[in-house]
Write the structure tokens for this entry.
Amino acid sequence: MCLISSAVSEWALPIIYHSLRFTTAQAITDFVAQHDKTSERIYTRLLLVRDLYIGKIPDESSDLSYGSLHWPITSLQRLISSCAELRSLTVLGLDQRLWARFQPLLPPRLTKVTLGPIHGAHNSKNLKQHPPISFLTSAHTYLSDGEVEDVMMYPTMTRFRKMCEANSMAPLWAVNQAPIIKRSKQMKEYEIVICGAPEYAEPAYVLATQRKEELELDSRVVLRQYHGETWIAMVFQEFLDCRQCFLGTLLSSLPTVPSRIPSEHHLASQ
């Protein structure tokens, strides 16, 4: 990553730090080392971070695959805990046994979490800072009935999304767990996304719909299909859309737009 000189105007800092993505272990450790300083001016820049994406993205190499020994656990813990104003967190590929070590560190204003594949359970008792999570996405992960209930009964949870592989039993399992939503008063939507090529997703969607009708589920249970190349592409596009929305709102509020906007990769180290 390139470095930004101290001459960078304050208007640029929110653009740089709002949405950060890391696809390699080295990028995480370097960033944390650059910002883990006594200088309040540098450290407080992390308070500008609203969206963190950790893990693979389409068409780019990454050493943060599931089960990889390259994951810099300590650095990642420091990064997440230091972003005290974080609103959205995506972590893809983290070993399910390690997620419990991150839950107590989740910032107190976090509202959206995306995890997968084969992630650790959502355990509300581990959320020591009581973040108001309202939207949880679980990708390609089997959750027990008790784990699904823990998600849906979390006080601030209103939307739970399960992304399932079409060519598997996962869509039907997800539908069979849908009646749990009846125990939750605040849940607004349980979304089951069936991911895969049309020749697999469409038959799976039909079977899942039939099962939904058999269970007489209410309108809060929603079935959808996703025919994109990979489910990761869908998750990453949501990250990009969020950043683009922020940039559009920010730039429209400026009286004059600077001729050059720093890239999200130009992260300060001073």
About this structure: The chain has two domains: 9-119+235-260, 134-227. Residues 9-119+235-260 form one domain. The two ends are 13 Å apart (CA to CA).
